[in-house]
Amino acid sequence: MYRNFAIVPRIIFGRGSFNQLDEILAARRTSDGGMVFILDDVFQDRELRGRVPLHEGDRLLLVNVDDEPKTSYIDALVAEIKAGDSRVPAGIIGIGGGATLDIAKAVALLLTNPGSAADYQGWDLIKRPAVYKVGIPTLSGTGAEISRTTVLTGPEKKLGINSDYTLYDQIVLDPELLAGVPTDQWFYTGMDCYIHDVESLQGTYLNEFSKAYGEKSLELCRQVFLEEHPDRDDKLMMASYFGGMSIAYSQVGACHALSYGLSFVLGIHHGIGCCIAFNQLDEFYAEGVAEFRQMMAKHDIRLPQQVTAGLSDDQMEQMVTVALGLAPLWENCLGKNWRELMPRERARRLLSRM
Ligand SMILES: NC(=O)c1ccc[n+]([C@@H]2O[C@H](COP(=O)([O-])OP(=O)(O)OC[C@H]3O[C@@H](n4cnc5c(N)ncnc54)[C@H](O)[C@@H]3O)[C@@H](O)[C@H]2O)c1
Ligand SMILES: [Fe+2]
């Protein structure tokens, strides 16, 4: 069976395209509720905040992403929006990195679907279309702008709300918005994309569709992280989009699976967690890891060392359980007999090196 997958129907790309946001939204200002802009609070005192095209009745919510998004945070934001105005908003516009893009997706879904965000963690549990939603990345690499998931940490699990309704209706890709990202964050999020490409291209699920997008994305990542180009932000923005398209029709692999373990037990954020894990995975992705180290050296990135060193036996076992729970990722990496190739002891040995 082949997956008949939906993608984001409308995309605007280019430097300064953010200036067209007001015009894009105008066509959607039909219902009587206003627009709700969800902006990463890193922009609280920056120029971008003043450029948000607010009309009367619209709202601007500043969100904090020091922790990766939790289902309880989504529930609180939805309650705040409903308390402020009983009408359903005309649209939700998320502006920020992967975490903010995920928050905005989840809020748009929960405004039309009853209950808690935690009720929908899984696959195709959402029953009703979301409020119209627009995603505007200010950090590139996760592919959250084009994915059909919003990754959330709930009371019991870290799992996405995966559904066709999760996809944005519109994305605005303006490379100018990447200016001002600190180098280490730019690198970690960019490496998320590089690792998507390597894991997709070396996976057993690979097909020409994923390969076409993955190869182009990898080429762009090399230009961004190993060469000098004045338009590197434009390149990284497209690399992120193409990397996301590549994994949409294949899968990620060992690095993502192990990084979920790190993230669940230690609260390590996605981009940096992927880098810590990837740096120990020569036995799976020798060439990719060697090139990744060249990229680290070029940008003078120093990864945290021995993050799992002080963990208890129970914590290590929990990490192994989380990592090995991601069966499709291991199957993509190692094939159908992955369970024989990746016994618990091997996964634990890999994690203990990180
Ligand atoms: N939905 C998906 O398909 C998907 C895929 C991968 C990762 N994710 C999620 O994405 C999140 C990671 O996203 P991320 O790596 O983009 O980082 P992020 O959104 O967590 O942001 C990282 C930091 O960068 C700051 N920041 C963002 N834009 C900035 C800018 N222009 N200038 C200065 N600072 C800026 C943020 O305030 C934050 O402090 C995780 O929560 C992860 O679970 C989602
Ligand atoms: Fe990722």
TrEMBL record:
Record flagged with keyword Metal-binding: no
Residue intervals passing through the bilayer: none
Residue intervals of the Alcohol dehydrogenase iron-type/glycerol dehydrogenase GldA domain: 10-175
Keywords: Oxidoreductase
Domain Fe-containing alcohol dehydrogenase-like C-terminal, residue spans: 188-289
InterPro entries found in the cross-reference section: ADH_Fe/GldA, ADH_Fe_C, Alcohol_dehydrogenase_Fe
Protein name as catalogued: 3-deoxy-alpha-D-manno-octulosonate 8-oxidase
Native source organism of the sequence: Desulfofustis limnaeus
